[in-house]
Amino acid sequence: MVDSRSLIQKLTIESEPNAKLAISNINNVKVTPGEHLKFNNLDDMGNGYFVDIKDSSKAASFDATYTNLQKLTYKGKKITKVIMHFSTASGYWHDQYWHAELANNIYYGFRSWGGAKNIRFEWFYEDGSKVNFENGTAYLTVASLNTYLQKNQWGHERTTVISGGKGLALYGSSVSLHNGNELYSSKANSIDISGRARATDGPDSKPDQKLIDNFFPNQKDITNTNMPYKWDTANSPDRYYGAGLIALNGSDLAVIIDVKNDDMPSGTKPWNAQWANFGTIIPETPNINRPELTLHYHHTNVALLLHQQKKC
Fold first, then answer.
1. Domains, the chain, ranges and CATH?
2. What is the pTM assigned to this prediction?
């Protein structure tokens, strides 16, 4: 677990309204243009594409290539192209709803429905050479990792690092690191015990009886108690609450995006979607549960040192 103040970030991803997205190398998928995408069902994230599996009994894959990038840099050097290679994760694709929605603006990421997705990232400089991230200098923030634990929707939105990086948990976040490389929240972090959808609703929201009707008798025990309001909105200062980090190392990053629901109680319906948002603004660790940084000083008596030097 790390404190945001201790990290050195040399990778920058900002909003890219003029970015161009191309979907290519399609295998067993249908691609459809989409408008006014809202991955959190609230913020308009612009246009993009819908990608749907054709035959759920077979594997599927496609490439998403982002170009005309103006603000993506590493150590001050511009990165102009990013390729995300999508494929069905082994053993996970037998889902007729295997679906992805990708925004033209790489800043907003994509939304995933249905089965798990393997994703391999490649990054390229203006001269076409690949970016090679040095350890301890580049971090991706994996945000919007919701967990819903109700009778009508049960699931932990999860990102698993396969290669090219290391998962890290942030102090103050509801997301923790599991099995060495899996980032997700163990407890519900989006709907509070009063029945408010705190992830996207403000303090003026009212309890939703439909949510309350799907609570378990022990809902209090499986729900986090310190949820900030609207933490899962695009410009929230509290996005740390549903975020983990990936420390990049090397040229390619491979991850699996899915929803963990193998701990789902009998008779419960699975939650099977997520907004996959990879950014570089490391959410500031809040004061709650944050350790104090300790600075060690070496004191030198300058007058004594000069006196000793004159004697020599």
1. 4-188+243-283 (2.60.530.10)
2. 0.86
